[in-house]
Amino acid sequence: MANEQITREEVEHVASLAKLALTDAEADMFTDHLGKIFDIVTTLAEVDTENVKPTYSVTEMQTVLRDDVAVNAQQSEALLNNAPEHQGTLIKVPAILNGGAEG
Amino acid sequence: MDFLHTDIEKLHEQLVNKEITSVDLVKETLANIEQTDAKYDAFLATMSEKALAEAAAIDEAGIDPDNVLSGIPYGIKDNLITKDVTTTAASKILQDFKPIYDATVVSRLREQGAVGVGKLNMDEFAMGSTTETSYYKQTKNAWDQTKVPGGSSGGSAVSVAAGQVPFALGTDTGGSIRQPAAFNGIVGMKPTYGRVSRWGVIAFASSLDQVGVFTRRVKDNATVLAAMAGHDDNDQTSSDQAVPDFAAHLDGDIAGLKIAVPTEYFAAGVDEGVKATVRAGIDKLRELGATVDEVSLPHTKYGVAAYYILASAEASSNLQRFDGIRYSTRPENVKSLEDLYVQTRTQGFGDEVKRRIMLGTYSLSAGSYDAFFKKAAQVRTLMNDDFQKVFADYDLIAAPTAPNVAYDFGANQDDPEVTYMNDVLTIPVNMAGLPGMSVPAGFVDGLPVGMQLIANRYQEETIYRAAYAYEQATRLFEKVPGGKD
Right CATH number for A8-46 from 1.10.150, 1.25.40, 1.10.10, 1.10.20? Predict the structure, then answer.
């Protein structure tokens, strides 16, 4: 991890995983910015974390169960109003298979 | 009217005595926002119709004499969802989003009679420390409009500091309440993680996000937090711990309070003027009867690194939901579902959000997970342990809130790491899920300095007691923006 640097190719790969398109100029900018941020985050390598448990949440609570009861159920119309396109009670999306060319 | 020289109790008295109606109070609040906001740009939108209807209903039913929030107007950070009122989190991607329910904090305050009057500007999805990443506008510091207001809850802090509202809600993931409170010379409280429901908060980093309160006065802050805290069935992480009446025992007596001052919070990089101001504040606490010792929180300097990995990882996951299907404007000429995702997100998110999504995605990806995400979570454990060692012997930690006072717009535009390092003194509190407050401590070059008070989990009362004693002894709230000394 020490001295690790992020490359332009890695930035482009990560952007594609995150469903983001980058222009050439943006790819350069984010490579520069993420490189600077890496200078900070790679300092963690200095810390001895042998046998240290990770903390992903600070709440002491365990899984909470409740009855599966529908509340405020009659709101599908209001919900659909936020969707860019809908037909009846369904949200419309573009073709998934791209005319059969993919997949 | 403005709220620079009053507090919630006085407003309540005026309402109970019928010197003013709730409708008139709301009308005057909206008129003042209309008049002053060209200067501050704190508000993204006002919700006048809804506010006036709620106020009319309260007047009709009569002000509740036992409920100090009855008929009191307030402002809402725009990442807290409000039924039928556009909620954007200051992102382009949510420009048309009209929620179909209220955040729990909003519905609880409404039950108490508080009237939301508008939505406040912020950094996009709460990612930033200056409110400059907002897609919509640039909020200005209440004391000097050439300076940043801090962030991410910049609009909330400025609206209270400038007297536009008696109180405002914000959220704090890495300092987003405390730092803008410090930059604007007001009281900003980030409660214990789990103290307040996150239901209806547009998620940034779910293990760190917490809703809190901005006020000019400590007691007002305690009142509002008590009104909205407590378990909520809709948020599994909200605690069932009893909520004390935080405002009940504010008597100015802090004799015997044990205060710890962490050496690392006065390290290089913290402005000398800020250090001197906060040192003087700590001396005042000692004069008031507290004992003060220096302690060490040795992992402080790794907080920023660990935080940016964890918060960005959680953000990259939380922000997956913005895919152009259920909300947001759909881009034109979309060729396929994949193309819809990519175009919606590419056009809808700003650079800072993209940067964090990419950092988070990288941290969680195979090959980086152990060295980044898991490593950061282990460092988080060590930071928690640091705090628990201190709280075994002390009641409260006192330190600066931010390394500096408010600075110029655009100062760190090309250096995200400089901006990120500014959060070094606020991040540890979120990492450990502790309550933390910024309370006004004085001025450097005419700009406010905040003192940060940190307690162990669920010990908000200790913070409020100390802050109240300090506020009463210093009366810094008497100095207002644009006013004379």
Answer: 1.10.20
